[in-house]
Amino acid sequence: MIQVGVADLPETFEALARDAMKEHEKRFLERGKAVREACNALDNAASKFVVAVRNSWGTMDKSASEYGTRMAQSIEETARKLSGQQTSSGYDATEQLHTEAIEVLNKIIKTVRRYVPKLRRGLRVEIASLNSALGRLEMSVRSLGQALDQSPGRRIETTRRDIQQLKHEFEELLELKKDLVKANALLEENAVKASEALTAAQEYTSNSVFQELRRYEDSLRSKEDEIKQFIQPVTKPLAKLERKESDRKNKTLDVTTLHGLIDSPVQTVTTSQPFVIIQLLEKLAESLSQGNIEIEERKRHKAEQTILQSKEGSIQRLREDYLTIQANVQETVRQLRTTGLLEKKTEVEQRQAAISGEKERLIAHIAELNRRIDAITKTIMGNMKSLQQQIKQITGKEIEISIEG
What we know:
Elements: E1 2-5, H1 9-55, H2 62-83, H3 91-115, H4 124-150, H5 153-205, H6 208-245, H7 255-263, H8 265-271, H9 274-289, H10 297-311, H11 314-339, H12 341-395, E2 399-402
Parallel strand pairs: 1-2
Helix pairs in contact: 1-2, 1-3, 1-4, 1-5, 2-3, 3-4, 5-12, 6-7, 6-9, 6-10, 6-11, 7-8, 9-10
């Protein structure tokens, strides 16, 4: 068994194909020569026919004589297209010769069929000679076609194309593997950068001022949650109150504050005057007590508790606590900005985000490369198996193709 890599397969196959075609190419030369000789014989027969037409002047009418001359000259001209050609042993050249020979043969046959009936009964011997030469050409063309059909030439051409396709796929596989190596190297570099950025970020994380800022920010978020939970029991009752109020011509509610408590309670509680909110809630309490708003008893009780606590100063305390924490956050941020620490921390965080984004891109790219490598490897393996069978059928040699690299 012959073992060969994909890169060396074209050269190896050409050597095997040459051996497989040696005997067939001998037949190509012999039968191509036979076609050329048959064309020469037909050319000579046509030349003799012209002489015979001239010699029969007086025994043939003028029109028949003209038809005979025209036919013979056409046959001469057509036959000489092949009679002077050099024959070749190659499959492609022989196939081209066969194609041209068929065209010549068909053209001459049409010419003979067109003119012979017009010659009446004259020149029988010469016509028989022409027909004999034409039959010889027909047999030689058929014999050449049989030689082509019996050879593996067409299959060799198909296999050559398949080998080139395999080589192209193999080169693509090598490029994909190179890209994969580069991508993995970049991913390793990314991991080093991520570690360095994390170390830099941890330096700021351990800074006492940043730790203080985090405590304030956590307190601010907790206070926001507390405000939302405090307002939540009156949110739906306020929405129902707003729908009833929208039907009145003379509106008595502060619609802006009402919408604010429903949609953005934290911002409304911390930016509006407490007495404005309390006035709105008192109107809600009045509607609830009068039964103007349909609501479950349990939910009505919770809404009334929220309204009562608001009157007792809960809104004011929540607002003051939030603003105090917010002021502490702003002051701490100011200090960090003044010292330049905040800007440096922001730069580190931006670098971390960029590194993380690059990591995700590389991971996705590596996954895609692996998918493409798997797919093209599967295709290559299938094509190699098919080519091994093709080559064995053509050359009788068993061959094992391997992937190098």
